[in-house]
Amino acid sequence: MYELTPQLLNLYQDCPRCFWVEIHENTKLPSRGITSLQSGMYLALKKYTDGYRTKKKLPPELSKQIEGVFLPDETLVKKWRDHKTALSFEDKTLGFRFTGNFDDCILREVDGKPVYIPMDFKVRGFNLEEENHDQHAQLKLDCYDLLLKKNNFETSGTGYLIYYIPEEVKELGAVQFNVQVIQFVSDDSRAMNFIYEVVKVLNDKIPSGAKDCEYCAWGDAGVNMMKQSLLK
After folding, report:
1. For residue 193, how many other CB atoms are within 10 A of its CB?
2. Angstrom distance (rounded) from CA 130 to CA 127
3. How do residues 44-87 score in pLDDT, each as one tens digit?
4. CATH code for residues 2-231
């Protein structure tokens, strides 16, 4: 059974060949751009949101742009953040299990019923106008919407991507961030169709790599060097 995640689907977006190799050869590719500083920042952000969770309100930089509160069930949030206990579903006919762990989730009441809205944090070093529409983020939020629905949680069909962009360093090492909130329209059927596509690719022979994939270019160059040395 294939073990799939939103992150692996993002890898497929980057390079189908690298995705296929990682699944079939159980070969973990080097981290693509996530530094230890970013990892530390994500942990700090989760602690920060947890502090407001107990207060049952959003921090001031989010409260004017987002309606609702952080999901108040701390035990549930802890489970959803841990890959071992995160939301998942499986399709035994197609032979895959899909699992995704959230950064956080907004709870909002609509017509007296709880509605769950996934959130994803992103730390970056430059302003949004310097980057095109984030296809990775769109797919991840589609996947979170799918996971919630598959586990019988009502969704709003939207999700939030929260950008934290450093602006300046102040006294005592305090960093001032520019926080930008982007609301995405999420579509669980789009995520499901994408999963069907990647499963079909996994059931076939190894696909071609992306033209701009540095890993494939490096690997092909190494193979060519070996072939040339054997011919000498």
Report:
1. 11
2. 6
3. 899 999 999 999 999 999 999 999 999 999 999 999 999 999 99
4. 3.90.320
